[in-house]
Amino acid sequence: MQYTPPAWLPGGHAQTIWPALFARRQLGSVLPQVRERWIAPDGDFIDVDRQVASNPKRPLMVLFHGLEGSSQSHYAQSFADWATDNDVHFALPHFRGCSGELNQGPRAYHSGDHQEIHWVLAKLRLQHQKEGGQTLVAAGISLGGNALMRWAAEHGELALRSADAIASICAPLDLTQSGLAMGQGLNRHIYTRMFLRSMKPKAMAKLAQHPGLFDPLKLMAAKDLYAFDNVFTAPLHGFKNTDDYWTKASAKPLMKNIQLPALAMNARNDPFVPSHSLPQKQDVSQSVTLWQPEHGGHVGFAQGAWPGHIRGLPDAVGGWLMAAAGKPLHEGRMNDG
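The structure corresponding to this sequence follows.
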């Protein structure tokens, strides 16, 4: 992928912040979404927001959001807009607690949540096939991208039963390196504070549901994601501590096991993901394509004259996914199936 940022948006931080704050205003109309509530195997629930294409046989795009994301995130809206223009079914499953309503169980979500990915994709594939559809592709943003790649690596060739092609977008595939980067410099002062402003209240609400789940004083004292994960994310999801979590949940060490067509897209100036941590050809299987443009920021890739737009990202990734799944786009549309 070739990407040249607009002259009015220089640097990784600007290319990250502008899309997150202003890009929704530049999108066209998006089909109304229908929310479905699914009961998970453990008795908890997740909410899935969906858009329906003109024909049940049209391909289905599944998007897994990033840390503290939702169907209202700027990138989710841009992919929904792309799905509308290309007459593709669209589904966004929310990770636990991210749909606007706190989940019930003593857990949340994490960067290596590949079991949740597996359950969701298998259910969506079965639904789609029952309605006459065949093609299902999936993309994951940031945290969701690492979890998606981890799922593909865990399941190898069997992953093709649930998806025809996948893509990770700006995913921290080496969680240790990305986690350390998020605790330093501007990242710590801008992005980490932003995440903790929503993550801490959610964690405290979870403690109210399940008293004794963790030490509230330690959680409220956390100043970075390392400390937060040490108190909350790691122990709630079966990891010893943050180091254990970041090591075991990272997709990068397992990407040689991926057998279905997969795209890993990372800008080299992403503030969240150090360029030296990105996978190289020797780190992945022949099924994995690496896109590593010099610019783009974290889930940014804005284009055009001021005020710009962010449709270039779903256009590029969506086009790659459909081609890899054997359903290439033709003049903005695809054949049914």
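Strands lie at 34-39, 45-51, 60-64, 89-93, 136-141, 165-169, 262-265, 288-291.
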